[in-house]
Sequence to fold (231 residues):
Amino acid sequence: MTLSLRALNRATLARQLLLQRSGMTPLEAIEHLVGMQAQAPFAPYYGLWSRLQRFTGAELSGLLTDRRAVRIVLMRGTIHLVTAADCHRLRPVVQPMLERSLLMNTTYRDALAGVDLSAVADAASVLLQAEPLTPGELGTRLAERWPGCPPATLATAARSMLPLVQVPPRALWQRSGQVRLTTATAWLGRHRGKPLTIDKLMLRYLAAFGPATAADAQIWSGLNRLGEVFD
Fold:
C-alpha cells in the first residue's frame, strides 16, 4: 500500500499526538514518544503543552523531582527527557553508538589516545555516586588522575561511557539551575526489568514516528545497520 503525502503527514502527526490534544498523562506521553528532545531544558514543557489536555509546567517539574522522569544523553548523543524505566532500558541499546562517536570525534580522539576509558568511567562513577557534580567539577577531579588530558575531554568521556542524568533543579519550570550530574543508578536505583531489544525499540519508534524507513530510524537514533532489523 502506498500512502499519499497527505496521508503520511496525517499519520505521523497523529502518532506524535499533534493532530489533537491527548488525554494521556505526561508520563504516558513521554514514554509513548520514546523520550523527548531536551537539549534545550524547557523544550519538553512546550512539547507536552502542545500535545496534552490541561498540562501544566508543575506536572513535569514534579516528575523530575520525584525521579519518575530524567534527562540523559541518549539518541544521537543528545539529551532526552525519558521516563525512569526508559532511562535504564534505552541507554544500553545506544551505548555502543555513544562510545563509537566519542572515539571518532576529532575534538577528543587525540587527547584520549592511550587513556583507559574504562578506568575513567570507574573513577567518575565513584565521584558521582558520592555527590552530583557539574561537568567542570567532574573534569577537574578526573584530571588529578589523568593530568595530561584536558578536564573537559575527561568529563565528556565519562558522559559517553556512563549513563549520567542531570539532576534538579536543572530544567525545573520557572527555576532551573546549572547542570549537575550523577549516575542513573545512584539517582534511580537499579533497574529490575528486562533489557530493551533493538527490535522492540524499533517497534516503539514506529508507533511514535511511523510510517518510516530504516534510514529514518537511523537518523532519529544515531544507530546504523537497521535495515535488517526492519526486514
